Amino acid sequence: MSSPQHARPAPVGGPLFNTTTFVCGVLIALMAAILFARFLFGLGAVTNLNDGYPWGIWVVVDVVIGSAFACGGFSVALLVYIFNKGQYHPLVRPALLASLFGYTLAGVGVIFDIGRWWNFWHIFWPAYSNPHSVMFEVAVCISAYILVMWLEFSPVFFEKFGMRDAKKKLNKVLFFLIALGTLLPMMHQSSLGTLLVVMGTQVYPLWQTPIVPLLYLLSAITIGYGVVLFESCVAASAYRRQIETRLLEPLARIMLGILSVFLLVRFGDLAVRGVLGHAFAPTLKALMFWLETLSFAAPWLLIGSLTARRNPARLFLAGVAIMLGGILLRLNGFLIGYDTGPGWSYFPSVGELLVTFGMFAIEVLGYIIFTRRFPVLPRAEAAH
Q1: What is the C-alpha to C-alpha distance for residues 87 and 246, in angstroms, rounded to an integer?
Q2: Which residues pair with residue 203 across a beta bridge?
Q3: Residue 217: count of CB within 10 angstroms of its CB
Q4: Phi/psi of residue 353, nearest 5 degrees
Q5: Cα dihedral: 235, 58, 184, 270 (round 10)
Q6: Weakest mean pLDDT among 81-95, 135-149, 287-301
Q7: Which residues contact 111 (CB under 8 A, 6 or more apart)?
Q8: 56 within 8 A of 48, measured Cβ to Cβ
Q9: Backbone torsions φ then ψ of 300, nearest 5 degrees
């Protein structure tokens, strides 16, 4: 569906070097130095991983949480192309750009955590495939989705360099790419939850449930809309543009609807399994559970009314709250609520933290470069 002429994307323009890009560059340089040591001397040289906790923040934050944050493109495309809500079309490209960087870096980030990283190509070689493995399904789906997203985003390059014929040819198969771009995230987001299921009793009962794949899928869609609210508010503030409240208000209403379904399923599952009592125990896990729950419930308090949803500051805070809830849900399940037995503990090293900061810095720097130099955001006069 084509957008109106006045709403067509255009480069924002302006200088690329500023305080934000400088800080991003420093963080990326630090990350590169740490990864050089990691690939040369092994995981033990820069991480606090051990036999009890073989997965740290490089997997949990950069991959599990990072891919959930990258669901903005999938969530908006679901509205525009599947449910035919064409009014949200101006949000597709910026959401897809954020998803593109998030998923691409999540895919690359997996290599950081592989012990024998030089064998990463095995996942693409049929002789090494294991169709019964959840991790194999996640790896294949994420890899395929990254390719699909780059193809979906390619019209931005075609428009930038005047390649009209290439864009016309792509439009003929775009429906197929959109279908894949809707199916693949559903598969691997739910499968990321399945990873917790196969961990069995090592995961605390508040996060160990047979329906955790459904919870991860519902929360990923909700997080996707939260990220769109966050990104739209930040971009409008940074580039001094009018915020698109006319689009974000109904989008926020849809987000609240899916959030309600998620919370009903979440607490219904806890009640049916009879484990809700664990939430009232005097433990760190119970505290983290309520922080997670309050983060997911906060958007209802912030933007529950129509008047509140027209307030950009409240939309921004609601997006932040949803993102925080998504972080805690996954952090609690994979790290805080994970116990492999006595004698083992884990806290990320400075090197692990700097690599994670560097990954996010790449996303921020990439977003700035693309929005300033390529037709991603709607023209400023299109905003109301």
Answers
A1: 10
A2: 338
A3: 21
A4: -65, -40
A5: -100
A6: 81-95
A7: 117, 120
A8: yes
A9: -65, -35
pTM of the model: 0.88
Among all chains, which residue has been given the structure tokens 């492999």?
A: 340
Instruction: Name which of 172, 255, 170 is nearest 220 in CA terms.
Output: 255
Q: What is the pLDDT of residues 352-372, one digit of tens each?
A: 999 999 999 999 999 999 999
Q: What are the residues facing 9 on neighbouring strands?
A: 378
Contact between 280 and 286 under an 8 Å Cβ cutoff? The reply is yes
19's tokens: 């305080």
Strands (E), the chain: none
Length of the chain: 384
Three-state DSSP at 311 gives coil
Say if CB 369 and CB 16 are below 8 A apart.
yes
Tokens 């569906």 locate to 1
Nearest-CA neighbor of 347 among 31, 49, 35? 49
Can you say how many angstroms the Cα of residue 68 is from the centroid of all Cα atoms in its chain? 3
pLDDT digits (tens, 9 = 90+) for 236-292: 888 888 888 888 999 999 999 999 999 999 999 999 999 999 999 999 999 999 999
CB-based contact 314:14 (threshold 8 Å) = no
Q: Which residues pair with 338 in a beta bridge?
A: 203
What gap in Å lies between CA 368 and CA 372, rounded to an integer?
Answer: 6
Residue 121: other Cβ atoms inside 10 A: 8
